Amino acid sequence: MRRLPVRRARRTAIGATLALVGVLSLSGCSQLVDAFNNMQGDTASVPANAGATVRPSATPTETMAFNSQFTYDGSVMMTSEIADDLELRLELWAVDSKRTQEWTPARDKTFGFAVNVYDRRVDDKAVLAEKRRVYISSIQIMSQTAQTSGQVQSPFQFSADPRTLVPTDTLRSERGLLLNTYQGGLLVPEQTIRQLPADTFGMTLEFAMTITVEGTANTDTSFQQQTVYQYVPIAIFQD
Asked: What keywords are annotated for this sequence in UniProt (predicted)?
């Protein structure tokens, strides 16, 4: 490709620039500055933060005013080690609305929960005599609000003997409702949290479960009672 003489090249560049100025002068100074910046776009530049570590975008739980895995997923499972290789499981899930970002102070908020037990020493299909039995005799749920005013209230409360919440043919004794059976432990399909203070942005449910645990499988003299606590934070959004 034939190169233009230096003087001619300069005259061509100046003429193009003047023509551009003439056009842009009709549309304002700010566009003129942008045009000159664009003309220099072919020049390589190094970002000011080159070499810095780039953080990933914030997750929904990080940007949430009240951090809640239950709100993020619509459900949560929490476990408690009640003996060596013996695990109590509390599961909680949204029922109405299943879209937890619709959980606001004014509307009803319905959830379901289940309590089960898992003995890791034996196979799931093992007969009951080979498993360490676990009975639940009481379950209580208390609540505590988080409010922009700084006030704390307990608008939701629940207390029951689990034996009254399931069909009468479910295995039970004076120790309570038997959890580790094929019938599925304790299932409470619906509980409703009703109106909350208008400035509520979160609440925490505290579960207190009184259980009796068998120390050695098929040994009636080895039972001991304990109370297990679990806490479930729930975000509340404004209407």
From this structure: Signal
Q: Which of 169, 196, 202 is nearest to 183 (CA)?
A: 169
User: Domains in the chain: how many in total?
Assistant: 2
Q: Could you tell me the sign of the dihedral formed by the alpha carbons of 71, 191, 187, 82, in that order?
A: positive
- Tens of pLDDT along 194-234? 999 999 999 999 999 999 999 999 999 999 999 999 999 99
Contact 180, 119 (CB under 8 A): yes
Query: Over the stretch 41-59, which tens digit does the pLDDT of each residue have?
Result: 443 333 433 333 333 333 4
Task: Note whether 10 and 69 are same-domain residues.
Answer: no
Identify the DSSP state of 163: G
Q: Which amino acid is at 57?
A: S
Q: Which amino acid is at 37?
A: N
Strands, E assignment, the chain: 75-83, 86-96, 109-119, 134-147, 158-160, 172-173, 176-178, 186-193, 200-214, 223-235
Kindly state whether residues 132 and 212 are assigned to the same domain. yes
**Both 126 and 192 in a single domain?**
yes
What pTM, to 2 d.p., does this model score? 0.73
